[in-house]
């Protein structure tokens, strides 16, 4: 694909934790929408009302629904012009389901896989992709598998998370008082999330350097 001016590329993550190892190039626009479809829809409409990027990349973590997808696999869905370069970097083209809520158990993932035939689940990128493509903006969903299809999350994080994605620590503290066995599970999960954020950041750093470099 042709080289793109960084000023014409917008990256959107739900949370800063997903981008903690991403090093944006000068003039690249990086945004954080907050968790969920509603936040993502409001955010992308606000961006497009003031600007029209050539490329929008909506990035972050995803849960696997397809049992074949392994931990830390980069998965994507993209408009045709972006597919060749994503394929060349080893990303796996996948079907996403944009959920209204966190899918935290293996049994729920299996049911969703059977009913939607989607490979991975996320909570923001689907609506961003739909709005961008309707306005003829090149777009790619780029996500990393942070939990596999047969894996339960330590808890239902929806129960302790505010709408803006921040942890409500009073609720977390009460839950840990009742179930102290969650503490080592949460520490292990946090380590995995950090690994995924690091690998996603490295992938995006390489990708953005390639598509913006001067020939």
List the helices and strands and how they pair.
Blueprint: E1 9-13, E2 29-32, H1 37-50, E3 55-64, E4 74-78, H2 83-88, E5 92-93, E6 96-98, H3 106-116, E7 120-122, H4 125-134, E8 138-147, H5 169-178, H6 182-212
Parallel strand pairs: 1-2, 1-3, 3-8, 4-5, 6-7
Antiparallel strand pairs: 3-7, 4-8
Quick description:
This protein is an alpha/beta fold and 215 residues long. It has 6 helices and 8 strands, in the order ββαββαββαβαβαα. Strands 1, 2, 3, 4, 5, 6, 7 and 8 form an 8-stranded mixed sheet that branches.
Characterize the structure shown.
The chain has about 220 residues and is α/β, with parallel strands linked by helices. Helix content is about 40%, strand content about 20%. The protein has 6 helices and 8 strands; from the N terminus they run ββαββαββαβαβαα. Strands 1, 2, 3, 4, 5, 6, 7 and 8 form an 8-stranded mixed β-sheet that branches. The longest helix has about 30 residues, at about 180-210.
Descriptive key words:
globular; 8-stranded mixed sheet; 215 residues; alpha/beta
Overall strand count: 8
Based on CA atoms alone, the radius of gyration comes out at: 17 Å
Helical coverage, percent range: 25-40%
Structural class: alpha/beta
What is the H/E string?
EEHEEHEEHEHEHH
Strand content: 15-25%
How many alpha or pi helices? 6
State mean pLDDT (0 to 100 scale): 91
Largest sheet, strands/sense/barrel: 8 strands, mixed
Shape: globular
Give the uncertain stretches in residue-range form.
none
* First-to-last CA distance: 12 Å
């Amino acid at each position: 694909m042709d080289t793109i001016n960084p000023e014409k590329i917008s990256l959107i993550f739900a949370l800063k934790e997903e981008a903690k190892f991403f090093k944006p190039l000068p003039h690249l626009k990086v945004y954080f929408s907050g968790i969920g479809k509603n936040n993502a829809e409001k955010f992308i409409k606000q961006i497009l009302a003031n600007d029209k990027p050539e490329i929008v990349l909506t990035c972050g973590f995803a849960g696997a629904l397809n049992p074949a997808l392994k931990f830390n696999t980069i998965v994507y869905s993209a408009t045709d012009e972006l597919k060749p370069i994503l394929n060349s970097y080893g990303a796996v083209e996948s079907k996403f389901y944009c959920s209204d809520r966190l899918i935290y158990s293996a049994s729920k993932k299996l049911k969703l896989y059977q009913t939607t035939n989607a490979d991975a689940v996320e909570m923001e990128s689907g609506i961003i992709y739909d709005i961008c493509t309707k306005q003829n903006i090149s777009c790619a969903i780029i996500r990393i598998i942070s939990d596999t299809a047969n894996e339960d999350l330590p808890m239902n994080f929806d129960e302790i998370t505010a709408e803006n994605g921040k942890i409500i620590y009073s609720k977390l503290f009460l839950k840990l008082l009742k179930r102290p066995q969650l503490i080592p599970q949460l520490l292990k999960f946090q380590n995995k999330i950090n690994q995924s954020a690091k690998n996603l950041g490295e992938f995006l750093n390489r990708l953005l350097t390639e598509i913006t470099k001067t020939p």
